[in-house]
Write a structure and sequence with these properties.
The protein is an alpha+beta fold. It is about 30% helix and about 25% strand. It has seven helices and eleven strands. It starts with 14 loop residues before the first strand and ends with a strand.
Length: about 270
């Protein structure tokens, strides 16, 4: 299936999540990096390991290709606005064509989230053994998170640790603050342990500034979360996901047409 041409109007009522296994994308990084802005091309050249360099190039190329698709324009070499905490955004964020986006990656998996109504954040984490998990929890978890964490059996702790961590990062990325905000002041525990949605606010922030968090099952062995500004009771029903196929055609010679193949699912 070719990449669907999605009209901007669909984003008024939907949140789109794109996921890709960058190691399976047979893209020519030598050619792709020449399409990126000079600042990103230079950063790619500073990676010590080739695997990390290629993942960086592919991820940034994919993000710009998707933005170009939504905006109906060539977006490969255009500059982003970067806030003081390092979050990228479109330079013009006040028009009807505004698209809010956020990206995350963990090892070979790369995800992009797009919204047209409000600020958005996404995070993905690979579940793995973490020898210093207790230390990180003590430093970065809220009192409520620690209390809930210590009631869990040993097999559930690793999964819950990354679940809380992904929620925290998604929320702070949606706010545009990233890890500059103290993680232990962010509480990502839901009132109902079976609920995947959470309305929350950051300590010390405007009480009306609410954010909705949604746990995402994007890829086996990974934990992810999505954060959106405002109250969204049916956020799960608004999310549409696209998983890029393992074998993707090289898009460099047909940027303005269907540039890759994908499988799509809801």
């Amino acid at each position: 299936m070719n990449l669907p041409r999605i009209e901007n109007k669909n984003l008024h009522n939907e949140i789109h999540i794109w996921a890709a296994d960058l190691d399976q994308w047979n893209l020519s990084c030598l050619e792709a990096v020449q399409e990126l802005p000079e600042t990103e091309a230079k950063k790619a050249g500073r990676f010590r390991f080739e695997t990390h360099r290629k993942r960086y190039i592919k991820g940034h190329y994919l993000l710009r290709a998707l933005l170009g698709m939504y905006l109906g324009t060539d977006f490969y070499d255009r500059a982003f606005h970067i806030n003081k905490y390092g979050k990228p955004a479109l330079i013009n964020t006040k028009t009807e064509d505004t698209i809010f986006f956020n990206i995350s990656n963990s090892e070979n998996i790369y995800v992009c989230a797009f919204s047209q109504n409000s600020d958005i954040g996404i995070d993905i984490e690979k579940n793995h053994d973490l020898p210093d998990m207790d230390r990180i929890m003590a430093e970065s978890f809220s009192a409520e998170e620690k209390r809930r964490f210590h009631t869990l059996s040993e097999p559930d702790r690793t999964r819950t640790f990354f679940q809380y961590w992904a929620r925290k990062e998604a929320l702070l990325k949606a706010m545009g603050m990233g890890l500059s905000y103290p993680m232990n002041q962010v509480n990502a525990v839901t009132g109902d342990k079976h609920s995947s949605q959470l309305i929350t606010k950051i300590a010390g922030s405007d009480i009306s500034n609410q954010w909705t968090l949604l746990d995402m099952d994007i890829c086996t062995g990974f934990t992810s979360a999505l954060a959106l500004q405002g109250e969204h009771p049916d956020l799960a029903g608004q999310v549409r996901s696209f998983h890029l196929a393992d074998e993707i055609i090289n898009p460099l010679n047909e940027k303005h047409n269907n540039f890759l193949q994908c499988g799509a699912g809801n």
